What does this fold into?
Amino acid sequence: MEYKTLVEYYEKLERTSSKIEKAKILAELLKMCNPNDLERVIYLVQGSLYPKYMQIELGVATQLMIKVINKTIGVSREKIEEEFTKTGDLGLTVEKLIPSKKQVTLFKKSLTVEEVFENLRKVATASGEGAQEKKINILTSLLLMCTPKEAKYLVRTVLGELRVGVAEGIIRDAIVEAFFEKKKEVEEVIDYAWSILSDFAAVAKIAKESGLEGLKNIKIEFGRPIQVMLGEKAESIEEVVKEFGKVAAEWKYDGMRTLIMKKGNKILLFTRRQENVTAQFPDLVELCIKGIKAEECVVEGETIAVNPKTGDPLAFQVLSRRIHRKYEIEKMVEKIPIRIHLFDILYLNGEMLISKPLIERRKILENVIEKIEGKFELAKQIISDDVKEIEEFYQESLNAKQEGLMLKVLTSPYKFGRHVGGWYKIKPTMESLDLVIVGATWGEGSRANWLTSYELAVRDPDTGNFLRCGMMSTGLKEEEYEMMTEILKPLIIYEKGKEVKVRPKIVIEVKYQEIQKSPNYEAGYALRFPSFVRIRDDKGPEEADTIERLIELYKSQGKVG
Ligand code: AMP
It folds into this structure.
């Protein structure tokens, strides 16, 4: 396929905001693709080159791209930057500037999707000495072959800002539309396939080549993390027991969800957001090799940090220092030892176990695991319908500084994603805080005109200053982003890139999961997972919660019942 054709479709996608319309446009495009281009196009419309879990980014910064544009079209860097600051979109800038290109290649042949895609992959994977030079050369030769419109989208792709608004749901609908007579069953099967492969390019290829049966027979593959099952919040233990009778109550550990894939002597570890953390946890890899008896399987558990002297559990924030660590990993292994509590098994020696009831999966898990005291254990569990007994178990978990309980329905299969039923979280609800907005960030893609994340601050009554304590971007409905943008825009003091500082005027009520100590914020504390409740237009900034209140709530954590 010619890149020109893809670009025409980018334009069509960009022109409409209707999800149904976008899915139709994309379906038309997918139908035109040969099998190889199909995969490439699915990655490219998502603005990527690989499935997300591979964590391979193009790694091209705006300044480098400006250098490439300068080299290709001969316009000065100052002029490029001047244009760029007007729109904040380097794609538009290049589209506008390219007609003045000096080296007009008169008989140039058209670019293909294959050329763009394979060359961009080379840019993404270039490393070591001379990588920068290599990237510049590849990008320059691509850009030289582009028409202004192609250049616009090429540059946006390279910078990770394609802005055509194709979310996962739209790709799913487009695959249904392109390769099947639209039926509800197909949607479910595609969701299932995607939950297992986490890669729409792979799903589309199977849909095209082997149809519904092919998709239904997909199995978990070593190396591809699945979309893990999550719990729903329940109001009370009583409510869950009333509805389901006997449940499996498990401690909800305060750690890192860990998906373990084993094949022979090879182990891979993924987080719930599908980050590959195998390199960061060589100690856990070793435990898995010793503790998992099966040749090939996929199990899940929660990894927690423990005190190196006493073995007592430590808070998630301690463990988090290991999760993104790139250097001195061995040192961290010693400094912050870990323990895992396993709670599920999804796959064993070629067999998918997800449709088996929870209680059966737990038994299989117990047979597959060789416990290693204090290091490689099962999640603490009781099976009961006695509310009082479960309440006591809940208290035990909280006393051990864990988050609470997961109540699991005994007959429930493993279901991918959130809000799927089957697992219910019981944890203390925190008091909300009234905080002042002191900054914000412009959104991406279709939300580029909205301020979509907000810097929160508490008040210091002694100085009258506002001390930052977190960044919030969840809990708002679409129209609320718009409203917040309207309210905050007139308060902007200055802008740098996508970030803005605003006058501290607006107070909002914020929920959060936990307060952590943090050197990154002036308050010295940060909210974990802050989420929007409402605007407190009944309060001025001078009535916002204070730093003292934040510290008080921090200290009371873990004691709440
Ligand atoms: P939440 O983050 O509050 O939505 O809760 C879901 C998270 O609880 C999962 O992603 C796991 O990391 C964690 N978790 C801790 N203990 C368990 C358990 N026994 N069963 C399932 N999830 C657990």
User: Anything to note?
Assistant: DSSP finds 20 helices and 21 strands in the chain.
